[in-house]
Amino acid sequence: MNTKTHLELHNEHLLWKSDLNMWLNDLDIWEHEMGELLDNLRIIEKAIDRHVEAYQRHMRAIREHELDINKHELDLKLLAEGSEYDERLNHEHQLQAQRHMLQKEAHQRLKKFHYNLAGLISKLRNSLVDETNSPTR
User: Fold this and answer.
1) Are 117 and 48 in contact (CB under 8 A)?
2) Segment 23-52 mean pLDDT
3) What is the pTM of this model?
4) Torsion from C-alpha of 118, 119, 125, 129, nearest 10 degrees
5) What gap in Å lies between CA 63 and CA 34, rounded to an integer?
6) pLDDT category, 86, cuts 50, 70, 90?
7) Contacts of 76 (CB under 8 A, 6+ apart)
8) What is the CA radius of gyration of the chain?
9) Is CB count within 10 Å lower at the N or C end of the chain?
10) Distance CA 105, CA 19 (A)
11) CA 21 to chain centre
């Protein structure tokens, strides 16, 4: 049988009280941080909403660009079938090329942001849902 002296028991209780005080202090700090976490979650949610809006604007711009290219291609086809050369079509082609480059750059920026955001959110979700990381295990 492992018997401890009164002094050993008392010292062990003091250690426990010290641990309890430290834990209570941690909980006070965490309570404040939980509010910050919730605030940050709302900020993240708004950022995702803005990303959805940017996606929708980009989708509309791409569809409009597609229509413009199709119209321009039709104009060029009509020209090839015998219409007189029109300097306006050459100018329009240059404008379409510039618009296309701007759309391409915008698409690459949105794509990079999208995959970065999706990766971060996925990592966060996985770290919170993974049962092996559960603090209650």
Assistant:
1) yes
2) 96
3) 0.72
4) 140
5) 43
6) confident
7) 89, 93
8) 32
9) N
10) 56
11) 39
